[in-house]
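Lecture notes, part 5. Sequence design as translation. It can be helpful to think of inverse folding as translation between two languages: the language of shapes and the language of residues. The source text, in structure tokens, appears below.
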């Protein structure tokens, strides 16, 4: 999934901890083979090849994940959209950069983007695209989903004090480490000086943190840095924000909502955030205005 996964465990048996951590890492490998669009034999690659021609039967797990993504899209007013792949290609994200796309290029990509064109048949467990050339890409939630699955495996093996990380973009803290009842202390980096300064700190106790920022996966297009956080409604990178970090009980939710909050901004998030979610906003402006939602 283009990231590094880490696990921190507390326990009294190194052997049991190693077995549990290995089981969690094996789950990541399973999900990579199931959901990666860069593997020709994955379930999502098969959907992307065939769903524009007719219904594709998928496993219950894949069907539930796609259906959940559609719900995120509806609730976020289209700011979250797993069909954004054609736009990412147009802006050069799958090849490391290139020239800036023209209006016609963006318009052609937008014609193949839109969660409303995903047709789901619950009874038959099939997925179909209403527009040919569409592509599903789980990059907006895949790491969060994997982190949740890993944490579930650790719990089932008896480990209720753990920190599971997909690099620094999606993190889940189960329970609390010894000596710190508030939970696992995690720093949110300053997007202007990510290697040196901290913008905020948060304690994760049965809680996740996901961060989306412009400095993480920008590419050079037409001689300028272009953010990977694409507004699927306009076809262009979302302006006005440097970074958003979201806390939620599940990592899939914190990761999914970080993008709509980034795109819509703080005022929209105050009115539309789901229950038990909070967010730390770093706008492209004075740092003294940065902060958590009220």
């Amino acid at each position: 999934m283009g990231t590094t996964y880490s696990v921190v465990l507390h326990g009294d048996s190194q052997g049991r901890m190693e077995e549990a951590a290995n089981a969690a890492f094996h789950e990541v490998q399973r999900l990579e083979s199931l959901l990666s669009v860069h593997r020709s034999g994955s379930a999502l690659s098969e959907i992307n090849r065939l769903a524009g021609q007719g219904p594709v039967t998928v496993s219950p797990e894949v069907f539930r994940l796609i259906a959940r993504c559609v719900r995120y899209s509806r609730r976020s007013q289209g700011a979250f959209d797993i069909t954004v792949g054609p736009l990412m290609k147009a802006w050069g994200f799958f090849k490391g950069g290139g020239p800036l796309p023209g209006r016609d290029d963006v318009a052609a990509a937008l014609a193949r983007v839109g969660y409303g064109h995903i047709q789901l048949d619950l009874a038959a467990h099939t997925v179909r695209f209403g527009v040919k050339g569409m592509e599903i890409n789980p990059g907006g939630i895949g790491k969060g989903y994997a982190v949740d699955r890993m944490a579930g495996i650790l719990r089932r093996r008896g480990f209720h004090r753990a920190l599971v990380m997909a690099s620094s973009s999606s993190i889940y803290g189960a329970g609390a480490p010894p000596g710190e009842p508030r939970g696992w202390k995690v720093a949110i980096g300053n997007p202007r000086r990510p290697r040196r300064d901290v913008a905020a700190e948060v304690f994760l106790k049965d809680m996740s943190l996901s961060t989306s920022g412009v400095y993480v996966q920008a590419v050079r297009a037409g001689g300028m840095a272009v953010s990977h956080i694409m507004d699927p409604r306009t076809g262009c990178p979302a302006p006005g924000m440097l970074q958003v970090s979201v806390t939620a009980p599940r990592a899939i939710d914190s990761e999914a909502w970080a993008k709509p909050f980034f795109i819509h901004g703080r005022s929209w998030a105050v009115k539309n955030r789901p229950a038990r979610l909070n967010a730390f906003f770093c706008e492209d402006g004075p740092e003294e205005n940065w902060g958590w939602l009220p």
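The translated text above is only one of many valid answers, since several sequences can fold into similar shapes. The first strand starts at residue 5 and ends at 9.
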